[in-house]
């Protein structure tokens, strides 16, 4: 089974000073939890400061995005090599990138390949919109996003995290229910076994994301194929993030 896992996506929140204060608040309590991998995902401009705070910590750091090219005329973008030494993980294919910035599966696939090629662990996000769910297309959409996102990728090599984030549940306060999430995430586990083999399929953390709180997280972490959570809003409060991490750790068999 995959190790329980939590990642906090701070999105476009926190100044550098606020990011440092937030990580200082959560560092001690997170480190006191055994048996769960904890990752924080600050904005680019705070990566160095947060990585510095966590230099002797087991808490991981992730970038929220990355461009696939090594360098060049891509104003405002950040390359994989620029992230070296700052973080070990990178969120790719978040629905806000797909919806607000027009990223498609082929582009996200290039990012996944570039991340793995540069020693970064992708946290690849997939998930259907409300319209797609209501049209009965959720399974097809997630299957396409997983298969195309991982096309040509040797997922057995560098490590991978997959997150199921139904778009209708992100930032809305309307989380999926455990059974709905498990249905899709069981499918994701079998896709991953098919793509990368049984061992990688089993060892890859699968995260649920979308309005996770301390009150609802056990419903997700109690499901067979949900190893943890990708948390947005609640990750901006150290006490809530720690509470969610503890609840995941306690709910996972092991
Ligand atoms: C996210 O942005 O990845 C997310 C899950 O946000 P929230 O927890 O706020 O719904």
Task: Chart the SSEs and their pairings.
Blueprint: E1 5-9, H1 16-31, E2 37-41, H2 47-53, E3 60-63, E4 89-92, H3 95-100, H4 105-117, E5 121-126, H5 130-134, H6 138-149, H7 155-158, E6 161-164, H8 178-196, H9 198-203, E7 206-209, H10 217-221, E8 228-231, H11 238-251
Bound molecules: phosphoenolpyruvate (PEP).
Phosphoenolpyruvate binds at residues 9, 165, 170-171, 209-212, 230-233.
Unreliable stretches covering 5 or more consecutive residues: none
Spatial strand order of the main sheet: 1-2-3-4-5-6-7-8
Q: Please provide the ordered H/E string of secondary-structure elements.
A: EHEHEEHHEHHHEHHEHEH
Bound molecules: phosphoenolpyruvate
Helix segment tally: 11
Specify the structural class. Answer: alpha/beta
Topology, number of strands: 8
CATH fold group: TIM Barrel
Tell me what the structure shows:
The model has no long low-confidence stretch (mean pLDDT 96). The chain has a single domain (5-251), classed as Aldolase class I (TIM Barrel, Alpha-Beta Barrel). It has helices at 16-31, 47-53, 95-100, 105-117, 130-134, 138-149, 155-158, 178-196, 198-203, 217-221, 238-251; strands at residues 5-9, 37-41, 60-63, 89-92, 121-126, 161-164, 206-209, 228-231. The chain contains 11 helices and 8 strands. Helix 4 (105-117) packs across helix 6 and helix 6 packs parallel to helix 8. Helix content is 42%, strand content 14%. Helix 2 links the parallel strand 2 (37-41) and strand 3. The chain is globular and about 45 Å long. With 254 residues, the protein is α/β, with parallel strands linked by helices. An 8-stranded parallel barrel has the order 1-2-3-4-5-6-7-8, surrounded by 5 helices. Residues 9, 165, 170-171, 209-212, 230-233 line the site of phosphoenolpyruvate.
